[in-house]
Amino acid sequence: MVWWSSTVVPSNSHCKLYHPWIGPYQVHSKLSDLNYEIAPTHDLSKSNKIHFDWLKRCTLRIQQCSNPLSDFSITHSDHTHTIGEHINL
Asked: Which residue intervals define the domain Integrase p58-like C-terminal in the entry (predicted)?
């Protein structure tokens, strides 16, 4: 899976805040050493031929836990506190 760089800033967006990488896209085939055929993951029928300079490997993040601190404990000399008891995430 890859991200595709888009240098065209939409008219309703500011260039300073614009994030140029769109996707993710799935690589269908390698057309040459420089060009690849890619398609959006949600619609594989729409393919594009793209130079490799416009692509970046996609690393998907693991979805966050609903309450990652619920089992985390801090032990102090007098008390033991569970972080999840005091914080609503």
From this structure: 23-57
